[in-house]
């Protein structure tokens, strides 16, 4: 089973557990056989078990991401070691950069250089910088690429989402059916309970990742630096807050238009 499928199954299990806790809590509150104290104790015990379950799911999910990142970085470290230990690597790159700086590189040469370094993030970035510095007329040939930096950002974004969302807070979070334009909806799914529970980050995991957790587009939101910042504060129930804000904004606009 691939990493993405494992991750999505664990998100589903967390959502299932949240639904079950809420159903049990509702039955307990409506029970005639339990005193108020008994209801409180039973709900507290269920919540303890639910919290432990969330901790377990969270750890399993983080292990999946960490192991995948470990394999990914190991491969690219090996590739970089080979490049850096090759005598001709730096001299060839320097010569190519000088050729661009001095204006000797025409469209054909630029196309060849970009193709040569398309899988080498460091070299491609240096070529890109030089082309911008000399205001090369061929800057339109530069591409927005899938890079190692973006992929590492994505791994961290997934971790931050898991840490923020797969928590005991799910026991209190309500699930609303989102409006058509809400990010809690998936492109290929009219309604997703998991997207409502875990927000737009879950939708991004579904839509932006390949089976091995690599991003499928250079424009993937998971690859954005601010999304992978450990200092970013994630609001629990963000999607719900967004929907409420949208509703309030529309109501306010309607009220203002009547004035």
Helix and strand topology:
Layout: H1 3-30, H2 36-84, H3 87-101, H4 107-116, H5 121-133, H6 148-165, H7 193-198, H8 200-208, H9 238-258
Q: What would your notes on this structure say?
A:
- The chain has 9 helices and no strands.
- It is mainly alpha-helical and 259 residues long.
- Helix 1 packs antiparallel against helix 2, helix 2 runs antiparallel to helix 6 (148-165) and helix 3 (87-101) packs parallel to helix 5.
- The longest helix has 49 residues, at 36-84.
- It is elongated.
Largest sheet: none
> Helix fraction?
55-70%
Count, helices: 9
Distance between the termini: 59 Å
Let me know the number of strands.
0
Poorly predicted ranges (pLDDT <50, ≥5 residues)?
235-250
Overall geometric form: elongated
What fraction of the residues are assigned to beta strands by DSSP?
Answer: under 5%
| Structural class by helix and strand composition | mainly alpha
User: If you compute it from the alpha carbons, what radius of gyration comes out, rounded to the nearest whole angstrom?
Assistant: 25 Å
User: Please, what is the average pLDDT?
Assistant: 86
**Topology as H/E string?**
HHHHHHHHH
List keywords for this structure.
9 helices, 259 residues, mainly alpha, single chain
Question: How do you describe this structure in short?
Answer:
The protein has 259 residues and is mostly helical. It has helices at 3-30, 36-84, 87-101, 107-116, 121-133, 148-165, 193-198, 200-208, 238-258.
């Amino acid at each position: 089973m691939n990493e993405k499928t494992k991750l999505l199954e664990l998100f589903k299990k967390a959502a299932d557990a949240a639904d079950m806790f809420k159903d049990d809590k509702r039955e307990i509150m409506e029970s005639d056989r339990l005193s108020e104290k008994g209801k409180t104790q039973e709900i507290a015990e269920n919540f303890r078990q639910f919290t432990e379950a969330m901790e377990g799911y969270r750890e399993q999910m983080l292990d999946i991401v960490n192991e995948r990142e470990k394999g990914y970085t190991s491969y690219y470290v090996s590739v970089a070691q080979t490049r850096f230990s090759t005598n001709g690597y730096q001299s060839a790159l320097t010569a190519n950069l000088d050729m661009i700086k001095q204006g000797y590189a025409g469209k054909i040469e630029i196309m060849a250089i970009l193709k040569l370094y398309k899988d080498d993030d460091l070299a491609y970035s240096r070529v890109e910088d030089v082309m911008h510095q000399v205001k090369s007329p061929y800057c339109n040939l530069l591409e927005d690429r899938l890079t190692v930096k973006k992929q590492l950002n994505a791994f961290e974004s997934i971790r931050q989402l898991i840490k923020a969302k797969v928590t005991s807070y799910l026991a209190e979070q309500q699930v609303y059916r989102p409006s058509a334009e809400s990010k809690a909806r998936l492109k290929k799914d009219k309604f997703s309970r998991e997207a409502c529970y875990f927000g737009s980050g879950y939708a991004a995991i579904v839509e932006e990742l390949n089976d091995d957790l690599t991003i499928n587009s250079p424009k993937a939101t998971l690859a954005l630096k601010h999304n992978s910042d450990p200092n970013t504060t994630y609001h629990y129930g963000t999607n719900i807050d967004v929907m409420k804000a949208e509703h309030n904004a529309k109501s306010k606009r309607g009220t203002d238009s009547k004035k």
